[in-house]
User: Fold these one by one.
Assistant:
Number 1:
Amino acid sequence: MSSSIFLKKKKRSAVLLDKHHSIRLLKTNKKRIVNKRNTKIKGFEQLLVRELNEAMISTSNSTVNEISENVNTVVIEGLPVTFLLKLGKEFFSDLEAVKYYYNSKHEDFYKNRSLLEESLQSSINNSSSEDQLKVSEFISNK
């Protein structure tokens, strides 16, 4: 019998220790405990931000869908350079960024991926809607 009473007291003290531990986390200046507290706070902040983003996305879904239906833009970011060059040679062979990408004599264009992406994106946006459809089909068939 005495052992069961001891176990009950031990469980109660464990619960009390847990409560005291959380209070101690707030009051201490020890580096390890302060780091624990800060990570818990960061996790809670990230959770709040995630929930707020989901709420904002769910409320603005209808407006985003309307905007995306009105504007059909082809996104080429993140595609491999060789594929971008094939795309450029297929549809926009007159672009200097496509012509001189591997030419070391033209230092402005030589292996300049950002310039290649910008020039392709601007030329795609300036082309007709039929050409944009062809480019999007080319990208989807990759």
Note: The chain has six helices and no strands.
Number 2:
Amino acid sequence: MAQINPSILSADFARLAEEATAVEGADWLHVDVMDNHFVPNLTLGVPIVESLSRATETPLDCHLMIEDPDRWAPQYVEAGAGSVTFHVEAAAAPVRLAREIRAKGARASMALKPATPIEPYEDLLPELDMLLIMTVEPGFGGQAFLDIMLPKIRRTRELISKHGLELWLQVDGGVSESTIERCAEAGADVFVAGSAVYGANDPAEAVRALRTKADGTIASAAWACNH
């Protein structure tokens, strides 16, 4: 079934602890870490993740949009993240990094920017717990969903099925009630939603509405029926 991960990039940074608890029922809290080098934006780092991990029972899903994740990613596990995503475009040794993240006790995830194809990384998939397909260019929230990513999501799901992997497939960028069903039909089962949740009058209800739409689509999706 679907997992809904609200992104605190769209939350009120002055009230992060409250915003974390406002999304009751979420599976994970998605934390966007940006360094103003890999992407042209600067957000937060290890100290905020440490504080958030103490402020919420919801596990933290840290998405590192940073240079040199080989050096920094393990620190986010130590800070309390339950899942750590690094960008393959930035990693020097993605297999070694994924293994280190797992060895420290977190789920290892790898992200691909829109222009990065999945096929060259097919052999890496067994080393991962989740793969993230960006459906916008990383760096800023509130962007429009890129429909041209749907075939890539389908191809990724086919590779996961081909190898018989229990690998979560996450999408991030422009996910809303109007786009989540297309993502789910294509093969995604983990959905990051920022403004669609925190821009709503009732963030917890927005999470429930997104889950209902995604679950309904997954239940009848060809990829899920063959799983």
Note: The chain has one domain: 3-225.
